[in-house]
Amino acid sequence: MAAETSDTSAKAESIVEVRHLSKTYDGRVRALEDINLSFPKGQLTTLLGPSGCGKTTMLKIIAGLLEPSSGEVFVNGKKITGPGPERAFVFQDFALMPWATVLRNAAFGLELRGMAKNERNEIARKYIAEVGLTGFENSYPRELSGGMRQRVGLARALAVNADVLLMDEPFSAVDEQTRRKFQEDMLALMEIEKKTFIFVTHSIEEAVYLSDQVVLLSRLPGKVSEIIKAPKAAGSPDEIRRDKVYLDTVEHIWQTLRKYLEE
Fold this sequence. Notes:
This protein is an alpha/beta fold. The longest helix has 19 residues. The radius of gyration is 18 Å and the shape is globular.
């Protein structure tokens, strides 16, 4: 088996700890059951599993947007009780203000914190440049493509300088070519920012390409099935996607998830 099951969290300092986490909706539907996970600092961890296995539920609990039915989440050693400045959420539907420019959208989190306009705009411009949108500062969301709007959402999350960025299928609304470019840009951005990313996707290839570790969840109720250390092959994006270890890891994950689909 090419995929390496690894207790990665034991080898790197963890920034997010999930302990005995469970979530039940309406007292009937168990979305998550007894999840124990560590998310290494400065790495990208992807949550992957069958549809409805609780991936987004876990992400929202870590963000403080949902309360767990039982269990706890710690960030930087402190138990969370709601949203906090050390975490930023990048929504699947962009969540931009349609009446505001790219610059104001990117600076909005800093505006909410009461930062002076000149200072917050300077920071927002830096991250607008990092996500490749220099020149669009005065454009409105309606004037942008879906991929560009998602970049604005990412710039806004980066601007608040959170330790942890939580991303819920951020590339699902764009075409395949744009998605691949996003993936390449994400790897470059991770090198620059050194942030911790917790990422939800349905794409096995995307998970293996981007991740330091992939957490496989079982069917509802979601439980940790396996933690896989994703390979980090050298070379160009095309060379990485043709790398045998990369391809074998993708195949291993597919065969694992396929069993859940056939149950």
